[in-house]
Amino acid sequence: MKKQAKAECASSAKHSNTWKEIDFSKYECKVRKLQIRIAKTQKKKRYNKVRSLQHLLVTSYEAKTLAVKKVTSNKGKRTAEIDHILWDTDAKKVNAVCSLKRRGYRALSLKRINIAKKNGKMRPLGIPTMRDRAMQALYLMALKPVTEATADANSHGFRKFRSTADAIDALHRWLSRDYSPQWILEGDIKGCSDHISHEWLLDNVRIDKHILGKWLKSRVVFNTLLQPIVKGTPQGGIISPTLANAALDGMERRH
């Protein structure tokens, strides 16, 4: 344990000791290079190499720092969940980077809240703690290159550099030809995220199964009651949209 602690201290000692001194653009560049390598390796179907590169990414100080930056600079940065912990000072952020470790990691229960949808119904959200959010952001950096390399060409939801405008442009190109389809089928998967099979995700998504299993099986606190999660990916987690996209990947190629 002492050797491990010394190694971790030595690893972080060569980096900036204060949050304001960190060169985030330099960190982003290093992580991006690793992500490009992961995507290229995934396309070659060298899955063992993909795993090795993903491990290299999630254990890097740079990726951990960017994960902490993400969860402390978005809209949820002032929302403390069931552990009542916020990373609201520079010192806490630096310490948080060192806390993002696979060994001994245990996902805490989610805080359930309901938000109103446009149709008048309620959408349940499961909000993770700051540390769990940061762990999801960290592992999402390693998963994204894989899902982007395998995604359907016309999948636009929850993908970087894709928007509604891209979907409209694709529709225009399909429907403006002489041989274009005469009918459009609009469909909606009822409770998509809420019903995804945990077993399917664990068997098919190229991510650390040990960590993914902890997120999927974490429980929910609602009205002071602790409830288990037996299926689905709780909406509110940073990684949930990408897991949903991974489950839907391949639909376009079947038609």
From TrEMBL:
Annotated ranges, domain Reverse transcriptase: 115-253
SUPFAM superfamilies (UniProt xref): DNA/RNA polymerases
Top-level lineage group: Bacteria
Keyword Cell membrane listed: no
Cited InterPro entries: DNA/RNA_pol_sf (IPR043502), GrpII_Intron_Splice-Mob/Def (IPR051083), RT_dom (IPR000477), RVT_N (IPR025960)
Keyword Lipoprotein in annotation: no
Annotated Reverse transcriptase N-terminal domain residues: 19-100
Protein family: Belongs to the bacterial reverse transcriptase family.
Keyword line: Nucleotidyltransferase, RNA-directed DNA polymerase, Transferase
This protein's name: Reverse transcriptase
Molecular functions (GO terms): RNA-directed DNA polymerase activity
A Pfam family it matches: RVT_1
